[in-house]
Amino acid sequence: MVKNTLISINSLRKLGSLIALLSVLAGCSASTSIQLDTNFPQVLAQPRPISAAIVFEESFSNYSAAPNQYTSMAIGNAQVELFKNAFTGLFDPVEFVGAAQEIQGQPSLIIRPSVREVQLSTPSENYLNVFEVWVKYNLEIRTADGEVLTTWFMPTYGKTPESSMASKSAAIEKATITAIRDAGAKLHLDFYQIPALKNWLAQHPEQHKQVADKAPGGVN
Amino acid sequence: MKIVFQLANPLIMPLCLLVLLAGCGATTTIDQYRPSEQPMVIAEGERIVLLGRRDAADYETDLAYIDCVSKIVQAAGIDVLDEQAFIDAIYPWFEPRTAPKGLVHLRQLLQQPQIRQQIDRQALRYLVWLDGSTESQDTSGSISCAVGPGVGGCFGFAKWDKLSTYEAVIWDLHSLQEQGRLRVDSEGSSYLIGAVAPIPLLTPVKSDACNGMGNQLSSFFSTP
């Protein structure tokens, strides 16, 4: 009985040591994984009276980036929320669907965003005291009859200082949030300035009731 | 001779410490420009917001500095709106890509009724841009630490200089004019002495720059 008790105490000690060692090794690991489920603010803009459907395919809404072998960034939920807010400030009415087949109304434009690439730069790589994240989006813009007007390349950028962050993952997360927020800013500055879209709106005045050469914010 | 040594001996250590600590003081210079000597009046219920510039390639005006200046200004009885709350309320027009760099851009922005209404809803009277950073400059000396069975310690001496440079620009959201500029430069040296235990003698360069900025900024405004 005494022997059994001693064995179990020794086993517990070994297990404790193993857990401590694993914890230390886990702390030494260079891998970083972030899961963004951030809430983004509503945009302050007057939408144009143009109907649109935004298609968030599963590859976009569940997107997880691996900018290098040590880092993974699950940004799908966050970018869907941001794009919903941003497009609500650009179009009225606007419909959000998971696939083109699910579109209910008769939208003038169908937009399918996708992620082309995510890049990450750390202070050890850029020799600056900042973490930088680039998220490069493609926006495929189609008309109601399926004609592709353009595939617009939209790079967004975010950075955050190393010194203000408690950890590498917190700094990367903050830089990624800044980059995704930048998508909203970029959309509201430049969306209605896309040449193919601007020309199409000018040629199809029936699709909208406002002048095509003025962005919603009016600051360009 | 022996008497002199006995008198001086108790003074040596405090004297050395004083000399070292004297070297740890930061030198802070404040320059200001105001088009008028009249204080900027903040009426009952009006607020100001302090925003950090974040469009430079190699640095960001850090949140801790803005928070520090905000606390000093608030302590002077001025109502300060939280930076992030303002940026979110007016999204996406004060993101790094879209924030107005000058008054011409600000005037264009405020021509949009929804943006003007949001500014009025927040009861914002003045917008203060803070731009700058704290950089480590010359580093000299070396210190090494070693640990053995039962013993350990650090030996050596290291010194580094820090420079904080921050500028504030104040915009009046009623007249849409610039009401003043303020620049704070603070510099000082910090030391690390390895005498078995490492003894840091740190100069609060950034803290001095914050105090200088916060106090001078507070003196610009008058509240009821």
What is the structure about, briefly put?
The complex is a heterodimer of chains A (220) and B (224). Chain A is an alpha/beta fold.
Verbal overview:
- By secondary structure, chain A is an alpha/beta fold.
- Chain A has a single domain (47-204), classed as 3-Layer(aba) Sandwich (Rossmann fold).
- Chain A contains six helices and eight strands.
- Chain A has helices at residues 2-28, 58-61, 76-88, 123-126, 168-190, 195-203, and strands at residues 32-35, 52-55, 64-68, 71-74, 94-97, 109-121, 130-143, 148-161.
- In chain A, the strands form two sheets. In chain A, strands 5-2-6-7-8 form a five-stranded mixed beta sheet. A three-stranded mixed beta sheet of chain A has the order 1-4-3, with helices on one face.
- In chain A, strand 7 (130-143) and strand 8 form a beta hairpin.
- The radius of gyration of chain A is 24 Å and the shape is elongated.
- Chain B is α/β, with parallel strands linked by helices.
- Chain B has six helices and eight strands; from the N terminus they run H-E-E-E-H-E-H-H-H-E-E-E-H-E.
- The N and C termini of chain B lie far apart (67 Å).
- Chain A binds chain B through residues 40-46, 86, 128-130, 157, 159-161, 163-164, 178, 181-182, 184-186, 188-189, 217-219, and chain B through 54, 57-60, 62-64, 88-93, 95-98, 100, 105, 108-109, 111-112, 114-115, 118.
